[in-house]
Amino acid sequence: MEQSIQYFNSEEAAQILNVNVSSIKRWTEDGTLECVKTAGGHRKFTMQHLAKFLEEHKTKTSRANLFPIESDQDLEINTRILKADFEFLIEYVLEQSRLCNRDRVLRVFNGLYLSQHPLHEIYDCLVTPVLHKNGELWEQGEISVIEEHFSTQVIICCIIRLQGTIRMPVEKIGTAFCLVMSQELHDIAIKMVDHVLELKGYKTFFSGQMTLSRKIERAFEIFKPDRIYISSTIVSDVNLAQAEFDKICYIAAAHNARVFVGGRGFDEIDFSHPAVEKRLNNFEEVYLS
Ligand code: B12
């Protein structure tokens, strides 16, 4: 089967960067813009190549077309991305995710990232409000549960695909565990915490939904994390959640690991353990932690 990596040809790269094809040629020849060459000698570009160029050469591309323009609506979305008009983009992504138009949602995420918006800002100002609004629409009976789930899954899929555009640091500055409690299905927030930490330079371990705290000591001994991030959204059994949390804190303290907590579940869990450094409220705080 043919491998399907998304490549742009020189014309498309020129359209996205809003320059002439001759500039693309020149920049690839002098090494300013990286590309791969096909057996036939044609230049091909990945999102990562374009992202790296945009990051390193801001002045050359101040008018980049971050959203491939195929219609008048695309032109408007491109402008909204350039203006970082989150109010508009929230509604657009909400609609497109419900229609399961993954390519359209991903283009917005990619566009914002390519125009140098930090990942934590995309998560705080776009992804979180979209997920919240989606939940509200379901609560108000305006969409069915399956539509709400369709939309959520598109968002999950696109935040993961966005990672493909991002160049992760090679040097690691530490090791972080990203965990949820054993009764927790909500793991999107902690997935995003994991992404922000990875981009900061941490080697991250993400355990996904319903992480069991049983035998967690073993993971501490093998991987020696220096930071533990725990997310809690819903607490169905307070005593159980508290016992699990206390146990993780106890093990973290024994391994000199600092604990950071987040999510509204911590309204019900007593997190005043000496191992706990801070309760964090958003992804910018994760980035700064
Ligand atoms: C998607 C979703 C689901 C998905 C989760 C999929 C997944 N893989 O995560 C599914 C369908 C599985 C689900 C299940 C349920 N859900 Co639900 N779900 C949602 C929804 C729509 C979005 C959640 C989300 O990801 N938000 C995006 C994140 C980024 O936002 P956030 O959680 O508010 O987190 C913010 C901060 O708290 C912070 N944060 C959170 N964690 C962390 C961690 C760290 C370290 C840091 C720094 C920060 C941080 O960062 C965010 C940015 O501000 C919300 C609606 C809403 N308003 O959130 C309901 C919601 C959370 N769910 C709810 C409920 C009731 C349930 C169910 C019980 C439904 C049921 N009857 O079965 C089950 C729970 C089962 C369980 N045991 O966990 C309620 C919770 C009400 C409450 N008591 O608080 C909500 C609020 C909907 C509602 N209004 O009724 N859900």
- Helix content bin: 40-55%
CATH class category of the largest domain: Alpha Beta
Overall shape: it is globular
Number of domain units: 3
Return the string of H and E elements: HHEEHHHHHHEHEHEHEEH
Which regions have little confidence, pLDDT < 50, spanning 5+ residues? none
CATH superfamily of the largest domain: Cobalamin-binding domain
Q: Remind me, CATH topology of the largest domain?
A: Rossmann fold
CATH architecture of the largest domain: 3-Layer(aba) Sandwich
Report how far apart the termini are.
44 Å
Number of helices: 12
Mean pLDDT: 89
Radius of gyration: 21 Å
Strand order of the largest sheet: 4-3-5-6-7
Portion of residues in beta strands equals: 5-15%
Beta-strand segment tally: 7
Ligands present? cobalamin
Specify the structural class.
alpha/beta
